[in-house]
Amino acid sequence: MKIKILHAIGGGEFGGAEQHILELLTFLSTRGIDPVVVCFYNSTFATELRKRKIRVIILDSYKRFDFRLVKGLARVFQEEKPALIHSHGVKANFFCRLASRALPSAPLITTIHSILRYDYPNPLAYFLASRMELWTRKWNKHYIAISRAIMESLEADGVDSSRISLIHHGIAVDQFESLHEHASDIRKSIGIPEDAFVVGTVSRMVPVKGLHDLLGAIDSLVKDHPHIHWLAVGDGPEKESLERTATEKGIHNHIHFVGFRQDIPRLLKAMDVFVSPSYSEGLGLSLLEAMAAKRPVISTLVGGIQDFLRDYQTGIVIPVHEPEEIKQNIMILMENKSLRTSLSEAAYQTVLGEYTLDHMADRTKKVYLELLNHR
User: Fold this and answer.
1) How many CB atoms lie within 10 A of CB 20?
2) Mean pLDDT across the chain, nearest whole number?
3) Which residues of 313-343 are buried (b: 16+ CB within 10 A; e: fewer)?
4) CA pair distance 92, 89, nearest whole angstrom
5) N or C: which end of the chain has fewer CB within 10 A?
6) Rounded CA separation 295/112 (Å)
7) Lowest-pLDDT range, 16-20, 196-200, 309-313?
8) What is the distance between the alpha carbons of residues 247 and 296, in angstroms, rounded to a whole number?
9) Is the pLDDT confidence value at 75 over 70?
């Protein structure tokens, strides 16, 4: 008999947390777990869950911050009677912890996907989000941290280390190995010249991702290297500003904003170098995907990226807020194919050794069973 685990997340976006849950539940459903997901928005994430035959319950009849959601969740918990409740994100954490008292037999576990102070640049928004998180932690049984930096942040907040498990995100490595489409064909479909040197990013377009720093580097590079192009995958509030700046600088023909895409393995194959100029990361899932695709990476050493990126071993490390450093290191890799190859191979082996979906699913199930055995 399968163990029913109920996951809860806002689900209005489709970022790293949503991708994590999608892959995790796909694997856990073949390992004796019966997953059901509660979302507060009926959007792309819910659609993708349904495509994978994962049952979804939508609670979208409430306003953005509506305390009636506590009763709605409590009703779902009582009807579903899951063995364990697993929440993701500030809103889901807050309301699930309040509602979980309706089903005291089910331990409540939370995965922490990022460090709050970087998610909320507005001081008031950060204050409210942090209070929502801290005030309700007394009802939480256990935490999963997706990186060492997040685990240390929880410990600094007073969470006992015995209540935290470090489980990194896993990558579906086979998605990158089974792709046979030629890079030139992929580039042609996007409008990138076949002989271009393509710098790539896969990111939500928000200030914390540092994409304006990369734009500055690209602007400086194309003056002397007109074959350089930037393939920017992702969407968000910064996209319009980036597009406007590219037009003002006269480099818009060198930048390809393709928006939110789900064919990430395919798009990574069109890139020569992957750059992450981010100021903060929970783990750096897109960076791991680039490594799984055997693309050399240049990245700031922030958050969970510290767990796997080694300078001139698995990639090249750059400081934050330094467009000139981004430029110089892109040039180094552009001019040194053997270095690109050696970094890519070492990075790929790192992913295989520690960051696969099998590792993630098996370790998560182990935490579930330990919690249920100690009820």
Assistant:
1) 21
2) 93
3) ebbbbbeeebbebbbbbbbebbeeeeebeeb
4) 6
5) N
6) 28
7) 16-20
8) 28
9) yes
Q: What average pLDDT does range 140-145 have in this prediction?
A: 96
27 closest CA partner among 155, 222, 167 = 167
Identify the DSSP state of 122. S
255 burial type by CB count under 10 A (0-12 exposed, 13-18 middle, 19+ buried): buried
Two tokens at 43?
């959007």
Q: Which of 256, 258, 250 is nearest to 223 (CA)?
A: 250
Instruction: Report, in angstroms and rounded to the nearest whole number, the Rg of the chain calculated over CA atoms.
Output: 21
94 by Cβ neighbours in 10 Å (0-12 / 13-18 / 19+) ranks as buried
* Angle between helical axes of 323-335 and 211-224 (0-180°, round to 10): 50
- The structural domains of the chain, ordered by start, are 3-170+356-373 (3.40.50.2000), 173-354 (3.40.50.2000)
Is the pTM higher than 0.90? The answer reads no
43 in helix, strand or coil? Answer: coil
The answer to whether 96 touches 57, Cβ cutoff 8 Å, is no
Kindly state the average pLDDT of the residues 117-132: 85
Using the 8-state DSSP alphabet, how is residue 2 labeled? P
Range of lowest pLDDT (60-74, 316-330, 335-349): 60-74
Angle of CA points 313, 315, 317, to nearest 5°: 105
Sheet strands side by side (includes 255-259): 255-259, 228-233, 197-202, 273-276, 297-300, 316-318
Give the number of C-alpha atoms closer than 13 A to the C-alpha of residue 134, restricted to the C-beta side.
14
Q: Please name the helix (run of DSSP H) or strand (run of DSSP E) that holds residue 53, with its range, or none.
A: none
Residue 279 to residue 299: CA distance in whole angstroms: 10
Kind of pairing between the strands at 228-233 and 255-259: parallel
Contact 373, 107 (CB under 8 A): no
Measured CA to CA, the distance from residue 7 to residue 110 in angstroms comes to: 9
Residue 119 has pLDDT above 90, yes or no: no
Class of residue 277 by CB neighbours under 10 A (exposed 0-12, middle 13-18, buried 19+): buried
Among 364, 357, 304, CA closest to 147 = 304
